[in-house]
Specification:
This protein is an alpha/beta fold. It is about 35% helix and about 20% strand.
Length: about 220
């Protein structure tokens, strides 16, 4: 993801101040100064990366998933450091429209959950560590926020090189409704992260990608 972000930066009027890879992750004194850092590292690395960047007063865009157990502590650090943070399980524009559509479907199905059972299935490349994906978790939360209270079966596939596919289904004895978002490549995630990096400059607080996109 870092290479994609770097290659797309000129389209967004951004300049890359530096790249922190595994060889430099443990050497924060050598990290370059920057207005905003985009973190597509690993879940285990997010807390330490965040603390080091917050101490510098650098705003942060977090595109990694699986670190949410630390969210309360990171929010406190962001408040103390007076930085801006955009955190999201998925930065693709289409996925966030998809989340809004699923929320609306949840509203419509809330009174019909005894007839229509619901499931979520997500599929990603074999190297993705967390399962279910952050987006699948966000989809279930969207359904719950829409007052869909019936059980939701959530399942995952990790195989090959799948960029990311998420399906939400509602199944009744005589019919099935499915809503699916498929990422054809990872460019959409990089573009969303760059949009977020431009948007967060000069802001303080904790935001999601839907704040950035205004949806």
């Amino acid at each position: 993801m870092g290479q994609l972000v770097e290659s797309l930066c000129p389209e967004y009027g951004c300049a890359v101040a530096g790249v922190i890879d595994r060889s430099r992750a443990g050497l924060p004194d050598e990290w370059p100064a920057a207005d905003v850092a985009i973190d597509f590292s690993t879940a285990d690395a997010v807390p330490s990366n965040f603390a080091r960047l917050a101490a510098r007063g650098t705003s942060i865009v977090i595109g990694t998933t699986g670190w949410q157990a630390h969210e309360s502590a990171l929010r406190e650090q962001a408040t103390r450091a007076r930085i801006g943070v955009v955190a999201a399980p998925n930065f693709a524009l289409g996925v966030n429209v998809f989340l809004a559509l699923v929320a609306r479907a949840g509203e419509l199905m809330a009174a019909r959950s005894s007839v229509f059972g619901c499931w979520i299935h997500e599929a990603h490349h074999a190297a993705k560590r967390d399962a279910p994906s952050g987006t699948a978790i966000a989809l279930e939360r969207a359904l719950r926020a829409a007052r869909y209270t019936a059980p939701v079966d959530v399942s995952s596939t990790r195989a090959g090189f799948i960029p990311g596919t998420h399906t939400v289904g509602f199944d009744a004895p005589a019919e099935t409704i499915t809503l699916t978002h498929t990422a054809r490549d990872r460019t959409a995630f990089a573009r969303g992260a760059l949009e977020a990096a431009k948007w967060i400059q000069g802001k303080q607080g904790w935001f999601g990608i839907r704040d950035v996109l205004g949806i």
